[in-house]
Amino acid sequence: MLRRSLRFAGLFGLSAWFLPLALASRLLALFGQRRAALRLGAATQGRWARAILRVLSIEVVLEGAAPHGTFVVVANHLSYLDIPVLASLFPGRFVAKSEIAGWPILGQLATAVGTIFVVQRRTRDMKRVEAEMVATLQAGVPVLLFPEGHSTRGISVDRLHSSLLGCTVHAGSPCLAVSLGYETPGDPWAPAATVCWWGGMSFWRHVWRLVGLEHIRSTVRAAPQALGGLERKELALRLHQELLARFQPLRQQPIAPDYPWPELFTSGSLPEGGSDQAS
Fold first, then answer.
1. Phi/psi at 68 (nearest 5 deg)?
2. Other beta carbons within 10 Å of 155
3. Is it true that the peptide bond before 262 is cis, omega within 30 degrees of 0?
4. For residue range 212-222, what is the model confidence (pLDDT) as tens digits?
5. CA distances from 229 to 105, 219, 235 (A)
6. Most buried residue, 150, 176, 189, 276, by most Cβ within 10 Å?
């Protein structure tokens, strides 16, 4: 209980600490310094992410390397932890669903660093989002996407939606496929239950359980080269193949006797998870 309480306090404390620096990036944008604002926002997010990982005792292991230049990071989606894990390695600008903006402190921080929020189920909003992505890439700042459109339990990688990949054509920036995985050394319970956030799990209840884990290891496997010069649907297929080639299924059993959502592991259906990113 003490570990949970201290870490939970640390999460909010760090986010509040970095919020003024993030707001400074918004001020730069208001004064017309858009490129500087985007770069400061990305750098702030990267520092916040590394601090969060230390508080939660999360080890990140990178296999592969980022390419030179500006690129789009395309990753499979397992948990809200994907955000600090990727931000620690690839400081950039995330594309996220608009609901995140309303989260206490974390939502304000995401807004301040310039997260591109998507109003889901509004097709016309995609033009605005794509324009923001193109402007970000042209400013030399990476864009990070989870094109599955939802988080999963880590059995495989679902089909990628191509709707947001058109920006790579317009900006002339390639896409880097990055496979995410988690393990919990020292904790017997499966990371599919303790780390992955999916199937309609309550966000805050899941966070409260996750911060009690002793140690989490995240393995990030990057493709050897970024893909570009393809039509968006073909690009989505190729990126999906790259992710599958590097993805390692997460451990699914056992789950704790007091696990709040045991039906997710006993039912035949696999409902989609709570998604914190847009497709």
1. -75, 155
2. 13
3. no
4. 999 999 999 99
5. 39, 28, 8
6. 176
